[in-house]
Design a protein that fits this description.
heterodimer, A: about 350 residues, alpha/beta, D-Maltodextrin-Binding Protein, domain 2, 5-stranded mixed beta sheet, 3-stranded parallel beta sheet, B: about 400 residues, mainly alpha, MetI-like fold, two-stranded antiparallel sheet, 13 helices, about 5% strand, transport (chain A), Bact_solute-bind_prot3 (chain A)
Chain lengths: ~350, ~400
């Protein structure tokens, strides 16, 4: 018992020391690097490319924040986390923010003491099966063996779905996406379930993507977004408004191509406020006036980032769907920059 | 010279706590204990205060909430509406199952490899040396993953058994070896004495215990006879009858039948499923720890002086009997204490189960429950308590066994 108290006390003492230190923003500036938690590798969202450079939709959020705060989009230390380790990494201060397809849920927000700073992808849990099984609906999966990533909300959704439809299944809990993919391809499970975007990304890396189908059922709401520790509101604001700047930029037509031209000043006051040529929004955040200009310049606006990493032109081929701007029938709606 | 005859001062002075050897060690022990207690108090207090400052508290009430997730290997009734405590129990039983199985097979592997390594046959002894060196020098996690990966890659999926021109078929139409596990026929009773299967198996167990008891009496009777007359009566047939006749009669009465696994839907249904993760974990733990046990066994055998073997040989005993009657009983005294720690290692290493998706206590309570509830400190404390209890229990049982085989000094 002695040992347990010791270890527990050390852990929590370390945890509290990190939280009690100066604000996260000062830490990041002093360090000159942003520690950003990402997945261990999910093509399109966060994965190192052939040169070992991290690329992806979630990675772009990290880079935009680094550009806004540090003025350098490459000043990011990417920390790969699994579904199990991500929250501990964030709570202990090992990472400054987590951008890892993490679902915004009540208990994570309230009970685990995190702060979700917005939604960068509206997702839902889906199923992928080999075409040769001839399954056309998830309700036909009675008795199937299902691979799931352990420590995620998908585990609970899956149990609820099968229970409410009165059908049985056998779960195979897997630690990472890569292992799950291997198990699925080896036929150790009939079905792989995770967020539909993740399934599309995983399928894109298969040798024969056409041999696998995504079933039409989406069994849950999975709003994915970046999150930070609860209690450090200045830092939370920086991450929240960096994401909002990317979304607003698309709505306002600011792109990586015309950003230089637009930052010379336009007739639209909102564009001017976003780009810092008017008002003192940057100062209110504790940053300089050009913070959002730098953030948008890294990979372009939300739409550009989407198209580059996971859009229909990429092997992953996701349609905008719910993730279109509110003006186009989607759910993306940034509060005004004012 | 008068100082020498002065009576020693009987009074106790404070300085004697440090200067007098009678008290000094005690003083330092008390100081050390106080410092240790203060440290623990400080850290514990720190923990509680910081938890309070972060708005968290230590509470185990989450154990009663519905777990909400499913587990693939359940030794007791469990579904997603059962409580977190129930999920932890399922994990505990899975841990104990794999630890128990692995301890037995590791001992078998270890004893065989340890004895064979001392063989006079060059090839056999070298083969065993290679086994020991390869398996104990590669981390057990790697072995678990290698064995699991090979299993899933090499064995056919259930789909391969389907259709008229299936690429795989069941062995003897009874056993199905798939990459998800091995399905074997399950015995059950058509006309059991009780309604519940559990009670019927208890009856069978009681029958076997009775047979064992009677067979022990027969051995005693034979020993007695041998001591009196010098001639040992043949007991083999009697013993066989004692074991098998009541068993067969019981099976006949209760109507033993077999439920053969059959391919239904996506998977095999019916029979007993021995899951792939269990097999991989069990085999990896046994073969890895077996290599260590082999070394213990070899050390134990080599600790017995050569004179013993030669004396036994001079009495005309055969090789096998020398090993069984003379060397191994004495070697056990050397083998048992390190064997205890190998058993503890197996139990603790079984926590690597999640690598292959085996739902042990670390995967259920320390994995999914911890993640879904966020109660990290509570869950980890429970895990520590479980492993501590399990290890101490194994230790205790093995120590009792050890004292029964150790040299009795009269």
């Amino acid at each position: 018992m002695k040992k347990t108290v010791f270890l527990g006390a050390f852990t929590v003492a370390g945890l509290a020391a990190a939280a009690a230190a100066a604000g996260t923003m000062d830490d990041v500036k002093a360090r000159g690097k942003l520690n950003c938690g990402v997945t261990t590798g999910l093509v399109g969202f966060a994965a190192p490319d052939a040169n070992g450079e991290w690329k992806g939709f979630d990675v772009a959020v990290c880079r935009a924040v680094a550009a806004a705060v540090l003025g350098d989009a490459s000043a990011v230390e990417f920390v790969p986390t699994t579904g199990k380790t991500r929250f501990t990494a964030l709570a202990s201060g090992e990472i400054d923010m987590l951008a890892r397809n993490t679902t915004w849920t009540f208990s994570r927000d309230v009970d685990l003491k995190f702060e979700f700073t917005g939604v960068n992808y509206y997702d839902g849990q889906g199923f992928m099966v080999p075409k040769e099984l001839g399954v056309s609906s998830a309700k036909e999966l009675d008795g199937a063996t299902v691979c799931i990533q352990t420590g995620t909300t998908t585990e609970l959704n899956l149990a609820d779905f099968f229970r409410s439809n009165n059908i049985s299944y056998e779960p195979v809990p897997i630690e990472t996406n890569a292992e799950a993919q291997q198990q699925y391809l080896a036929g150790a499970c009939d079905v792989y379930t995770t967020d539909a975007s993740g399934l599309a990304a995983t399928r894109a890396t298969f040798e024969n993507p056409g041999d696998h189908v995504l079933l039409p059922e989406i069994i849950s709401k999975e709003p994915l977004g970046p999150l930070v520790r609860h209690g450090d509101h200045e830092w939370g604001d920086v991450v929240r408004w960096t994401l909002n700047a990317l979304i607003s930029a698309e709505e306002l037509g600011i792109t990586s191509a015309n950003i230089g031209e637009m930052s010379a000043g336009t007739n639209n006051p909102e564009i001017n406020r976003v780009l810092g040529t008017e008002g003192t929004l940057g100062e209110m955040l504790g940053l300089d006036a050009e913070w959002s200009k730098r953030a948008i310049a890294v990979g372009g606006n939300y739409g550009e980032i989407f198209a580059q990493n996971i859009g229909e032109e990429t092997p992953i081929g996701l349609a905008r769907g719910l993730n279109a701007q509110w003006t186009e029938g989607g759910l993306l709606y940034s509060p005004p920059f004012r | 010279m008068s100082t020498l005859t002065d009576p020693p001062n009987a009074g106790f002075r404070l300085s004697m706590l440090f200067n007098d050897t009678r008290y000094r060690s005690l003083t330092f022990q008390v100081i050390a204990a106080i410092v240790l207690a203060l440290c623990i108090w400080y850290l514990g207090n720190n923990l509680i205060q910081n938890l309070r400052a972060a708005g968290l508290n230590i509470s185990y009430s989450f154990l009663g909430d519905p777990a909400g997730y499913d587990i693939n290997q359940r030794l007791v009734e469990y579904d997603s509406q059962s409580s977190h405590a129930r999920a932890a129990l399922v994990g505990v039983l899975n841990t104990l199952l794999v630890a128990f199985l692995a301890c037995i097979t590791a001992t078998v592997f270890g004893v065989v490899a340890g004895v064979l390594r001392l063989s006079n046959n060059w090839l056999v002894s070298k083969l065993m040396a290679v086994y020991v060196e390869i398996f104990r020098n590669i981390p057990v996690l790697i072995w678990i993953i290698i064995i699991f990966t090979i299993m899933t890659a090499v064995m056919p999926g259930p789909r391969a058994f389907r259709g008229d021109n299936a690429t795989s078929s069941m062995v003897l139409d009874l056993f199905a070896f798939t990459n998800r596990g091995v399905y074997v026929p399950m015995p059950w009773f058509e006309s059991g004495l009780f309604a519940s299967a559990f009670m019927n198996w208890m009856v069978v167990l009681a029958g076997l215990v009775a047979s064992w008891f009677v067979s022990g009496r027969v051995t005693n009777w034979a020993n007695h006879k041998q001591e009196e007359t010098g001639e040992r009566p043949k007991t083999l047939l009697i013993k066989l009858a004692i074991w098998f006749v009541p068993f067969a009669v019981l099976m006949l009465i209760m109507g033993l039948s077999w439920e053969v696994p059959a391919l239904k839907g996506f998977n095999f249904k019916g029979g007993i499923k021995i899951g792939g993760p269990l097999i991989a974990l069990w085999f990896a733990l046994s073969i890895y720890t077996g290599a260590f046990i082999a070394e213990n066994v070899r050390a134990g055998i080599q600790a017995i002086s050569k004179g013993q073997t030669e004396a036994a040989a001079a009495l005309g005993l055969r090789q096998g009997r020398i090993m069984n009657l003379v060397v191994l009983p004495q070697a056990l005294r050397v083998i048992i204490p390190p064997l205890i720690s190998q058993y503890l290692n197996i139990t603790k290493n079984s926590s690597l189960a999640i690598a292959v998706g085996y739902a042990d206590i670390t995967a259920t309570l320390g994995g999914i429950t911890l993640n879904q509830t966020g109660r990290a400190i509570e869950c980890v404390l429970l895990l520590m308590l479980f492993y501590l209890t399990a290890s101490l229990t194994i230790s205790m049982v093995m120590n009792i066994y050890n004292s029964s085989v150790k040299l009795k000094e009269r």
